[in-house]
Target: Phospholipid-transporting ATPase
Amino acid sequence: MSRKNNNFSFEQESDIDDIDLLADDIPASSNQHQASSNGATAGQNSNPFKDPSIEDQYIYPDVELVDLQSRIDTSSAPLNSNGNPFADSNQVFDDDNDILNERVADNRRDLPDFNSPNESKFDIKMYWSKLLGKPYSKVRDNSSPRIIHLNDPVTNSHFRYMDNHISTTKYNLATFVPKFLFEQFSKYANLFFLFTSIIQQIPGVTPTNRYTTIGTLLVVLTVSAIKEIMEDLKRNSADKELNSSKTMVLDSKAQNFVPKSWLNLKVGEIVKVSNGEPFPADLLLLSSSEPEALCYIETANLDGETNLKIKQGKSQTSHLTSPRQLCNLQGKVLSENPNSSLYTYEGTITFDNQEVALSPDQMLLRGANLKNTNWVVGLVVFTGHETKLMRNATAAPIKRTNVERIINLQILALFGILITLSLISSLGNIIKLQLDGNELGYLDLENTNKVGLFFKNILTFWILFSNLVPISLFVSVELIKYYQAFMIASDLDIYDEEKDTPTVCRTSSLVEELGQIEYIFSDKTGTLTRNIMEYKASSIAGRCYIKDIPEDRRAIVGDDGIEIGFHNFEEMYQDLNSDELGNIINEFFTLLATCHTVIPEVQDDGTIKYQAASPDEGALVQGAADVGYRFTVRKPNSVVFENTHLGRKYTYELLDVLEFNSTRKRMSGIFKCPDGRIRLYSKGADTVIFERLSPSGNHFVEATTRHLEDFAAEGLRTLCIATRVISEEEYLEWKPIHDKASTTLVDRQQKMDDAAELIEKDLFLLGATAIEDKLQDGVPDTISSLQEAGIKIWILTGDRQETAINIGMSCRLLSEDMNLLVINEDSKEETRDNMLSKLTALHENQVSAEDMRSLALVIDGKSLGYALDPDLEDYFLEIGVMCRAVICCRVSPLQKALVVKMVKRRKKALLLAIGDGANDVSMIQAAHVGIGISGMEGMQAARSADFSISQFKFLKKLLIVHGAWSYQRISEAILYSFYKNIALYMIQFWYAFSNAYSGQTVVESWTLTLYNVFYTVAPPIVIGIFDQFVSARYLDRYPRLYRVCQKGTFFNVTIFWGWVINGFYHSAVIYLCSIFIYRYGNVLSGGQVADHWTFGTAVFTSCTLTALGKAALVTNLWTKFTLLAIPGSFGFWLLFFPFHATVGPLINVSQEYRGIIPSVYGSLTFWAMTLVVPIMCLLRDILWKYYRRMYHPETYHFVQEIQKYNIQDHKPRVTHFQKAIRKVRQVHRMRKQRGFAFSQADEGQDKLVRLYDTTKKRDINGVLW
Model:
C-alpha cells in the first residue's frame, strides 16, 4: 500500500500503535510491503486481503496482511490475472495448484518443529506472559496464514493460539508493583520525598527525626495502593462475569453440543449460537437454521449501526447442520492473521477434496448478536484479544488530571525555591563562621572543612525546608477524591431506579476533570437514542391521523383552507368505510404492509416480531399492523398480509424491487395485486417523491407539505407515500431494460437508477408518515444545557448522514437557524478543496461571533479518513473548533479514537468521550475522561470507562454539578495545603537569620510532624468534601457557571503562586511579630525568661490559628463538619499540647517540652500573641476578599447573592420566549430541508427478499420442513 493510496499517513498510524494489544507478537518485517511476484509497482495495492473497492477499512502497518499466496510460496505458486488468489470470493481454487494442494494435504508440515534448533520446547515468553496475565499467542511464522485444523484439537494446540479470556484490568499480580510505583513516582513530589527520606538516614545531617518523612511517604503510598487495588478489583469482577458466560460447543465424544464457558473456548472448535445470543469469538459461518445458510446479525456493539446485516455461509458447508455431520468434518482452514479491520476477511477452507474461498460474508465477529435466526454453527477462528473487536480496543491507559499536571510543574519550581533557600542558608552559615568565628568558639568548628560543611548544610536545610511541599496533601487528596466518587455514586438524582443502576466511578482520581470539560465526543446509537423507532402519525389524503390527539391539537380548518391538527384512529376507521377516502387509506396501509424488506418472526405465543435491516421500516410495518394491516409471511416472490378488519389475507406477488440508495432517496416495489393489476409502490424523501408526481390528480400536495412541516418541527422523521397503476404492456416493455441494467458490468448502479426513472413517474400521492426515533429521556434538555455551559459536542456515529442530522435536530444539538457545513467527498483532493473553500469563505466574510455560533459541521467517514491525514487535519480542526456542533457519520471505531486523539493533541482542552458499545471503547479510553453507558449495546463500554451512567441525561448533573463541585473543592484543598505548609516552614527560613544559619528548628520536630497529621489535616479534607461555592439547584439553573471552571478560575498557575506568596507573607508577618513581641515580653510571671521552646510554641500556635483562619475565609458553606474541622482543630491543639508536653518526655519523646506548660499557658504574652498576630496576618486577606467581591466580582459571586437572599429572576419567562422563537425558525428551516426515515443499506435489498422464505424452517436436526 503506498502512502498516496493510504487514507492514513504513517504519522497517524503511530498515534494508534497502542491499539494493537499484541504488537510484540508481530515481527517488524510485517510492516514492510513486498512487491508481488507479478511485478506490482509502488502505488498499487499489493495486498490481496484489501479489496480496493472497499474504502472504509483501516489496516495499519502493525497488523497489515501480506499476500496469502506469497505466504505459501511466492516463487512458484501461480496467480490469477490480477495477482490475487482470492479476487473472487466465490472462486474455488484450481486443483492444479500443486504447491498449495501439497500444503493442504500434508498436515505435518504445518506443525512447529520442536526438534529444530530454531524451536524450543521451553518458551520463556509464554510462561512470562502467563505470569503477567498477558494474552499470548504462538504462531510459527507470521508471514504465513493462520492454519486451523477441523476437529483436531491436538494439532491446533501445537500452535498455541491465544485463549479466549478478556481482561480490561489495569494491573495483575506481577505488574502491580512496578506499574504502581512507576505511576506514583512519576509524581515529582513523591520522588522528592523519597530523596528526602534517604538523606534523613545519613547520620549527623537531619535536624529532625529520621523516620518522619519515610513513615509519612509509606502511608501515602499505602493509601494510594489500596484505592488502586479496590478500583481494579471491580474491573476484574466484571471481566470474570463476561469470561464465565456459556456457549454451546461441539463435543466429538458426545456427538453433541455441550455448554462451555467463553474462557475455555479454543481456536478450531465448532460452536452453536442461538437467536439473541452474542458471538463468543470471531466465527466462520458454516450453516444456520435458515435456507442457504443465511443469518441476521446486529453489529451495534461493533460499529454503532442498528440495522441488521445479512451473513451467508458457503453453499458447500450449508448442509453441515447435525452434530454427527460436523463431527465427521475433516480438513483445515487457511486464514488471514489477526487484524483490526472490521470489514475485511480472506481465507480458504479445505475439506472433502474441495477448496473454498472465504470472504467477510462468512465472518461473525465477537461483539455482534445473532438476530432473526434460530441458530448458527460456526468455527472459531480468532479468540480473546486476537478478535477484531479487541484489536480495535486499547489497553487501559494511565490518566493524569490537568490539576495534577499543573501541580507537577509547580512542584519543580518549589524544588528550585527549596534549593535556593538551602544554598542561601548554607552560604550564610559559612559567611557567619568566617566573619564571627571568634565569637562562636564554643561550637568547636575551628578545624572544620568549610567546603564539606557547606554541602552538609545543604542537605540539612533541604530536610528542614522539605515540607514546603506538603506530603500530607496526597493522602488528603486521595481521601477527598474517593469520598467524592462515593457521593457521586450515592446521588439518587443520577440513579436509574428502573434498571437499579447507580452511577459508578471506576477511576476516582479523575473526578475534578469532570468540572473542566470543553469537548464531548458522543456516540449516537444507544447513547442519545434508545434504538427504538415509534410510528407516530399519518397524513393521508390531506388528513392527519394519530392514536392519541395531543392537547389543543384536534383537527380544524385554517384560514388558508388547509386542515391542521389530528384525527384519532376511531375517525380513521370511519373514514375507511367511505368510498374515495377509504380507498386511499386502504392503499396507504397496504403499501406499508407490502413494500419493505422486513422479515416476520413468529414468537412462541403466536405474536409476530418484525426484524428489519432498517429500524424505520420495522416501525412502519408495525404501525400498519397496529391499525389492522398485519404483515405475516414473506416468500421469495410474494408477501402476505392480513386485513384484520375484514378477516382476510392477501397475497401480493413481488415482481421487482427498486432499491434504496443515498442518491435515489427512495425505495419502490412492483407488485401484482390480488385484483390482477400491476402497481408500483414507492416511499421516500418528500423532495424526490414530489418531483415524480403526476401533474394532474394530486389534490393533497399542499396539505401534505404543511403536515410534513409540522412533523419536522416536532423532530419527527418523515416519509412520503405514493403509488401508480402500471399497465402490463408498459411493464413488459420496461422489464428487459431493468434486467439488462442489473447485469451490466459497466456503471451498473447508474444504469439501474436510470431504468428506475423510466417507471417511477406520474405517481399519485397517498400521504406521508411520521416516525419518532425515540431519544433517551432528557437528551434535548441535557445537550442544550451542556452547550449553554460552553461545552462543544461532537457526535461520532456509524449511522448515515441523513439519520445523524435528523437525530441532531431532534436532540437540539442542531438548531433550526444553524448553517450546516457538509463535507462528503470521494477523494483526498476534493476533501482538501472543500475544506479550503469553507475556510476561505469564513475568513473573507468576517463572520460575526453570533454567526459563528450558528455553524455546524457534518462530515462522512470517507472524507474524515482523508481529513485525518497530517496535511489536512489542521484544516479539519480549524473548521471543527469554529462550529458549535460537529457530526461525523459512517465512522469506524478506530476513526472515533483518531478524532479524539487529534483534538487532544492539537487543543489544550479537556475532552470527554461517552458511548455504550464496544465500538466506543477506543474513543472512551483515548479521551481525558471516558464515560460508558450501561445500555442496550452491552456493558463493554461501561467496563472500560472511568465512569459509567445508565442514561445520557445524567451527564448534565455529573458535569455541571458534581464536576464543578469536585474541581472547586479539589482546587481549594490543594491550594490551602500548600499555603499552610509554606506559612509554617518558611518561618524556619526566617529563623535561620537569628540562629547563625545553624539549622536549628524553631518548633519541636514531632510537633512539626503532627502539624500535618492532626492539627491542620481536617480543614482541607472538609473543604474538599463538603464545600459548595454554589448549590446544586443554582448550578443546574445557571449552566453558564460551568464556564468559570472551564477557565480555570479556581486553579491555575497564577492562583497557585498567589497562594504561595501569601504563605510567604504570612510566615514573615508571624516571625517578625513574634520576634518583636518576645524581645520585650519574654519575662515570665516568676521572673524567669521564656526559653527557645516557649517562643517556638507561641510561634506555632499563632501560625496554626492563622492557617485555620485562612480556611475559614475560603469556606463557602459552613456545616457541622466545618465547625469540627476549623474551630475544632484549634481547640484540639490547645488541649492536646499539655498532654503531649507531659507524656512525651516521660517516654523519651519530645524532651524539649519538659516542664514547659506553665511558661506557655501561664504567660499573658503567649495569649496576646495568639490573638493579635493572626488578625494582623489575615487583615490583608479580608480586605482583598472585600475588594474582589465589590469591584471585580466573578460570575458565581452574583449567583451566591441570589442564593443567599433568594432573589427571583426572570429566566422562566425568557425560556418560554426562546421556545416560541425556536418554533418559528424551525418551520422556516424545515421548508428547505426535511428529514426522511430511511437508513437501509445501499444494496442487497432485492437479494434479501428473494432469498428469504418464512414458511420454511429447520427442525432440531437441521432438516428443512
In short: The domain at 265-392 is CATH 2.70.150.10 (Calcium-transporting ATPase, cytoplasmic transduction domain A). The chain is about 45% helix and 15% strand.
